[in-house]
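Section 3.1: Structural characterization of target chains.
Under the original work plan, the team committed to producing a structural model for every single-chain target entering the pipeline before any wet-lab resources were allocated. The record below documents one such target. The sequence was received from the expression subgroup and is listed exactly as submitted; it comprises 332 residues.
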Amino acid sequence: MGLFSFEIQPEVTFSSGANARLRHRLQSSRCLEPIQLSRLCHFSLGSLTLTATPNPELPIMREEIDLNGTLLAIDWLDAAPKDAPNVTPAGVLLLFPGIGTNSRRGFTGMTAHHLAKSFPRHKVGVAVLQGHDGLPLKSTCFPATAYVSIGDTGRLIEHVSRQFQGLPMVVVACSIGAAHFTHWAGSHPEKVKQCGVVGAVLVCHGTSARPAATAVDSSGAAPFILEAYRDILRTNFPDLTAFQDIPGFDPSKLSAARTLREWDEAVLPLYGFQRHEDVLDAVDTTPQMMRALPMPTVFLGAANETRRWSDGMPTDAYGCLWIPVDDGCGMM
């Protein structure tokens, strides 16, 4: 091993209810082989999660879903040859991206393309939340931490469940997309079962709302996230003074925001919150909610993102793969 490289050993842990088959498959897989990393290219590797593009790009069809004035969408990928006969899908793989990625770019885009090619008999879709990835924003759900409390993830899952009634569904989610999903699923475990969600893989879920939000500002990630947020608003609402009549909302605070906390505090009135602490309480996925998850769930992330859940994991078949890192928010 060279001077500018180092090796890390992934680890895996299981809930008490994990079955023998799951334990064997994870423990014997290549996932647990040592990983060689460069000390010089962490930021280059990190940028791949945002900028990598699949080659070739598969055909993508966007399905827009208007729910009483709220516009959501799903990008459906098609890996079937043009002359392939139509077949009944065997299941649905639904992805929820992190900020800055979509069906064509970054971690989610690469993963969605890989899944579509690997499982051609399954429908593979990437969720598009309000205002994201060019989707028009038709409400006052400005991009912010508080948006997690709205539950649009559940509305999309329920729509897909009705569209493909009776088919099993697996959710793959990353970063804030994973937070969106677990918050809804932990709050509505009965709906998870009704919708046929049989499993989930959650990447870089984070520990909870407070340390994750703090890590955004302390790690230097805030400028990137705020620029993505501002881009959504510039595209949809070039003149924010149109919203200045909303009690307590001051558009100038959004322009002046330099941290995620300042941005989140500026949009509090749009979501009906009074304090920043109230937002963090409303969007947090608590250990009790984690225990309520009714399906097998795999968490993939850094050690300090997952160990907080060691006492709150689902008791069904569960595996958690993590990469040891220094203290702090490993995702950031």
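The CA atoms of residues 213 and 292 lie 24 Å apart.
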